[in-house]
Amino acid sequence: MKTLKKLACTAASLAIAFTISGCSSLDSITGGKRIIRISHAQSESHPEHQGLLKFKEVIESQLGDKYEVQIFPNELLGAAQKAIELCQTGAIDFVVAGTANVETFEDSYEIFSMPYLFTSPEAYHEVMNDAEYMEKLYASTDQSGFRVMTWFDAGVRSFYSTKKIETPDDLKGQKIRVQQSPASVAMVKAFGAAASPMAFGEVYTAIQQGVIQGAENNELALTNNKHGEVAKYYSYTNHQMIPDVLIGNTKFLDSLSPEEYDIFMDAAQQATQLELDEWEEAAAEATDYAKNTQKVEFIEVDIEKFRDKVIGVQQEMIDNNPKITEMYEHIQKVNEEYENKEDAE
Ligand code: GCU
């Protein structure tokens, strides 16, 4: 019965995806309202979904006579890269995706996949919350048909696997899923593992079937995406903090009046605020559930040993992509500020 339900669900999502990819924005007008479609990869209990509900609420409360916002979770409209392509053409209006998925569209975004880029979550938040500083990067994909409106916290990424990882040597011989990001592939190789790039929605089955031994992500992947059912060791390597971003179709955004645009931007800011407010508790709850119900073992490792393995990747990335230098230096300054603050305390 469950399988039947699942099949029916998949067929329905495919039908939606096909209808959407074949439609023009005119098809998006229903009952006099312009339907706004947002795609994302998380479940409905994830803080990002809650943030998007806020986005919907703000827009509809002020522009509800004109717009209806529909949110499609769980990669229903396609995995991140596909969804970004759909947003590029205007088949859908907004997508939430990790910046790792934006790298292949604009390589400035590689900066966030750099291992051990941020030295604290506080520095990460400070950089990402500086909307004025981020504006140049956010607008850098305008030519490609989309732009970033705001960011969402996606926590700190660490390895989890069917095999215990306590030292970098334990990664040898393991096949680890990474996002479809050249920089993350380079990082996992530098750690000594084999990198297997694939969409988020494929990870559970790949671990279950032994195609890969593990992956790397924040703690919510264990629960919201059920990876903790199949991978029982989570090691705090804390190697990346990769933000998610809310991407909008440029043509659509440009078609808004200045007043409407301000409302959309305000809605995006409020979505971020709500998501950030919920993140920490959601991560703590996920850890608790993974530990006590899924019986995942959480392992504290000597992070310096892991850092040493991949620190060379930072310089390699800068040498290969001069576009990221300025931002790298900016982030180093913010890192230092927070390190000094911590020392003073
Ligand atoms: C996190 C992140 C997603 C990303 C996923 C992944 O869950 O929030 O945007 O797609 O990791 O590893 O693919």
Describe the structure.
The chain has helices spanning 2-21, 47-63, 80-89, 121-129, 131-139, 182-191, 203-208, 220-223, 250-255, 258-292, 303-320, 325-344, and strands spanning 29-30, 33-39, 67-72, 94-98, 146-152, 157-161, 175-178, 194-197, 214-217, 233-240, 244-249, 297-300. It has 345 residues and is of the alpha/beta class. Strands 1, 2, 3, 4, 5 and 11 form a six-stranded mixed β-sheet that branches. Helix 2 links the parallel strand 2 (33-39) and strand 3 (67-72). Helix 2 runs antiparallel to helix 10, helix 4 crosses helix 12 and helix 6 packs across helix 11 (303-320). Mean pLDDT is 93; it is low at 1-12 and 21-26. The protein binds alpha-D-glucopyranuronic acid. Alpha-D-glucopyranuronic acid (GCU) binds at residues 41, 80, 97-98, 154, 179, 200, 217, 221, 244.
Descriptors:
345 residues; alpha/beta; six-stranded mixed beta sheet; four-stranded mixed beta sheet; 12 helices; globular; disordered N terminus; binds alpha-D-glucopyranuronic acid
